[in-house]
Amino acid sequence: MFHYRNCIIITAVIWGLVAFIPAAQAQRQEFETIQCLVGSINPVHSSPDLGISSIDFKGITQSTHESKLFDNWTRHTVLVFRREGNKTSFNGFTKALAPEGEFIIWEFSKDLQGDVVVKAVEGSGKWKGVKGEYTAKRITKGKPIAPNTDQYCEKVVGWIELPK
Predict the structure, then answer these.
(1) Residues 6+ apart with CB under 8 A from 108
(2) Tally: H helices and E strands in the chain
(3) What is the pTM of this model?
(4) What is the CA 35 to chain-centroid distance, rounded?
(5) Contact present, 118 and 132 (Cβ < 8 Å)
(6) Which of 81, 72, 79 is nearest to 94 (CA)?
(7) 105 in a domain, yes or no?
(8) How crowded is the C-beta side of 19, counted as CA atoms within 13 Å?
(9) What's the domain range around 94?
(10) DSSP state, 112?
């Protein structure tokens, strides 16, 4: 009887501790947005075999998720673009700025064969220590309003975690 009661108590303590583990972990949030950007293209080199440019984009984000996470955030993106024949690659950074002034820095890259990978690398304020990833797909592209510019909107789907 004494042994049985101890087993019940130990089991109850273990279940109690397990119940608190998720509360101590980071909260993962899913998000979806539409972001529209306009950019200036700065050609460095262009030949049939190789093209190199830098591009400076600025834009705004509209949330399409019920959480409204990242709604009305502004963005500044810089990237270096490389074309080899018909294949492209690029890498760069985006500073996403909240209406309150806090920010998240995102890093992205695309190799000659692969998809775009975007990861959170730094944040300020409540975003300090942030982790996250997203994918982006262009949904519209406008005719350039001026030479060496690019205007488009993309759908973004991702997740983000804040440390506890």
Answers:
(1) 79, 90, 91, 92, 93, 94, 116, 117, 118, 119
(2) 1, 8
(3) 0.80
(4) 11
(5) no
(6) 79
(7) yes
(8) 6
(9) 27-162
(10) S
Confidence of residue 83 (pLDDT cuts 50, 70, 90): very high
74 close to 81: Cβ distance less than 8 angstroms? no
pLDDT of residue 116: 80
In Å, how far from its chain's centre is CA 41? 22
- Which comes out higher in pLDDT, residue 105 or 87? 105
Task: Report which secondary-structure segment, H or E, holds 96.
Answer: strand 87-97
What is the token pair recorded at 71? Answer: 């709604």
Q: What is the CA radius of gyration of the chain?
A: 22
CATH assignment of the domain containing 103: 2.40.350.10
Decide if 48 is inside a domain.
yes
Residue 123 belongs to a domain: yes
Residue 14 placed within a domain = no
Rounded mean pLDDT, 77-81: 96
How many domains would you assign to the chain?
1
